[in-house]
């Protein structure tokens, strides 16, 4: 294979990879922001760490809140995959996400996921 052919083949492969990455990014983003339903909890815990470098015990509540948030959304992803015939562990779309958020207080009490009525 000549150098020119090899360069052309590499360009084709790079174009395919770029397309795959764009498809992947569309599935894990809302517009230009990556899907992170626990973004606020993450930011608050990071700020607490920055402000309390000497004593991270002061940040325990922030860490616990972030941990509960991640556990809830992981449970939602698992529920959607098992019971709603979703093929991947994706987060719900933006409009559905708001409906799931209304279930957080119930989940905190029972640790069981029940889907919103209108999904």
UniProtKB/TrEMBL annotation:
UniProt organism field: Brachionus plicatilis
Gene Ontology cellular-component terms listed: mitochondrial intermembrane space
GO terms, biological process: mitochondrial respiratory chain complex assembly
Keywords assigned: Disulfide bond, Mitochondrion
Source organism, top-level taxon: Eukaryota
Keyword rRNA processing tagged: no
Subcellular compartments: Mitochondrion intermembrane space
The protein's name: Coiled-coil-helix-coiled-coil-helix domain-containing protein 7
Coiled coil: none
Family: Belongs to the CHCHD7 family.
